[in-house]
Specification:
Blueprint lengths: L9 E2 L2 E7 L20 E2 L7 E22 L3 E8 L2 E13 L3 H6 L6 E4 L6 H4 L2 E10 L9 E9 L44 H15 L5 H10 L5 E3 L19 H4 L18 E2 L2
Antiparallel strand pairs: 1-9, 2-4, 3-9, 4-7, 4-8, 4-9, 5-6, 5-8, 10-11
Length: about 280
Amino acid sequence: SSGINAEYGAPIKITNVVSCSTEDKIACAKNLLTADSFKKWSTEKPGQSNASVILQLESEQQITGVDIGNNGSAFVEVLVGSSANDSAFENLIVMSSFMTPSESRGQTNKFKVRMFEKEELCKQTVDKKWDRVKIVCTQPYNKNMNYGLSMITFRGVNKPLQAVSDAPLKVLDPVAKISSPSVAKSPVVKKVKPADATPSKEGQAASNLLSRLAQSKETTSKEALERLKETGDKGFTRVSSSVVDIRDDYDEIPSTSASKTTPTTPSQKPKQALPAVAFSKIL
């Protein structure tokens, strides 16, 4: 037949095989439930006078088109019925030729496909609803071959499109800002004010105390550290830029003026300077 028109319709689901008169163990009637043309249905033995199969559709529907793929049958007939009455079937497609006598004897053109549109279906049944279909195949020209169908598809009335709402479309302003709760806000980075480099009052007081202790002749380095701890300034823990020279218990710490004028005699024991100790305030 000619091309498919808009009324050809959507495929109707076939749920199961109700019965069949003959079938091969491999090419069984159940293969017609799928759209795979490689899985065919054929007679159990060659030379059988006819082969028929009854298929159950998903629901009662109006059939507006049929696609048939042949498998060696000379003629194919399609009838429709209802599950409420198993015995009554009416013609939907009259017996139609799929292979000529010469093609049947030579087993050529065995898999011809024909597509029947609504205009080619029987008028007394095309406008009614059916849920069962019976297919009858015959091959009178060659008694030495198996035959049947490679596929069959039924098509129904297309479902109407949903009505489009008459409500006016809302036009969004492309300039307006669109706020979405799903968009994560950028994290706010807090600026940290740098610490003041000026020493605290406690740190300045400890520094002054250390200087006074270093200038005292009766104070050793160990005593200077002990007195520094007694001030309670916990922040005074690391080295600073001002260095104070604290000498050993047995070495006198001369004053600033005496250190410049008093010479060192050979008999005198050289004074051993201790390493410079320094502290600073952690700011």
